[in-house]
Amino acid sequence: MLDADPPPPAVPPRALRPFIPHGEPDTEAPLSGATLAAHGGVTLLPLGAVWAATRVGGDTRLGATAAEAAAGTVLASLPGRFLFVHPSYPQGRWMELEVGAFGAAMVVTPPVAALGTWGMGEVAFGDSEDRGRAYLGALGGATVGMLLGLAAHEGLRHLAGSSERLDFLRRYLALSLIGSGATVGYQWSRTPTPRR
Questions:
Q1: Do residues 186 and 138 make contact, with C-beta atoms less than 8 angstroms apart?
Q2: Confidence band for 196, pLDDT divided at 50, 70 and 90
Q3: Which of 51, 83, 79 is closest to 65 using CA atoms?
Q4: C-alpha of 8 from chain center
Q5: Where is the composition biased (Pro residues) (predicted)?
């Protein structure tokens, strides 16, 4: 009886905080005039990039250049939708999956967008003297466009606050910046084959 260990001290039960998810977005929240103006201003960026692509490549055919940007945008939208994944709650395994999907999309989206722009450019403009260099230019432009697109998307999302209005427009703008960036890079780096 003398050798018995004393009982452990009683530990008061810890009060657990209930999980409080982030508030549901208010899809009907009004947007301020400045936020609407910012969305409209950013809409001009992809259009300006397509116009700039006609100036850097020596070929001023706007239709073919717009087709390149559209092809890059369409192909970028396939893996690019995972660029807009946001954690539904801030812990646990789900966040790892969402971060993994975002990281994979960051790696895969520029080459896929560059492939679309490069492929359409080779069809619309004809063969390039150095196809590898033209593809690398499209890849560099798509990467820069992706970074600008993500920054524009998050900036506009921050301005919109809890409102989900114009969310489709924000995503479209980010993806079109990827496609138009790939077009600028492709036009800048390609050298057309001399026509006979």
A1: yes
A2: very low
A3: 51
A4: 56
A5: 1-12
Where are the alpha helices (H) located in 19-130, listed in sequence order? 33-56, 62-80, 93-125
The answer to whether 109 and 74 have CB atoms below 8 angstroms apart is no
What is the secondary structure of 109-163 as a DSSP string?
HHHHHHHHHHHHHHHHH--BS-HHHHHHHHHHHHHHHHHHHHHHHHHHHHHHTTB
Place of tokens 């790892």: 96
Estimate the crossing angle of helix 131-160 against helix 33-56, to 10 degrees: 170
Task: Give the C-alpha distances (Å, rounded to integers) separating 51 from 55, 68, 136, 151.
Answer: 7, 12, 21, 21
Model confidence at 91: pLDDT above 60: no
Which pair of tokens denotes residue 81? 């939708």
Between 69-83, 90-104, 127-141, the lowest mean confidence (pLDDT) is in 90-104
**What is the mean predicted confidence (pLDDT) over 33-44?**
85
Residue owning tokens 């208010």: 26
Distance CA 110, CA 187 (A): 16
* Type of residue at 131: R
Which pair of tokens denotes residue 176? 């079109």
Is the pTM here over 0.85, yes or no? no
Which of 116, 177, 120, 184 is closest to 146 using CA atoms? 177
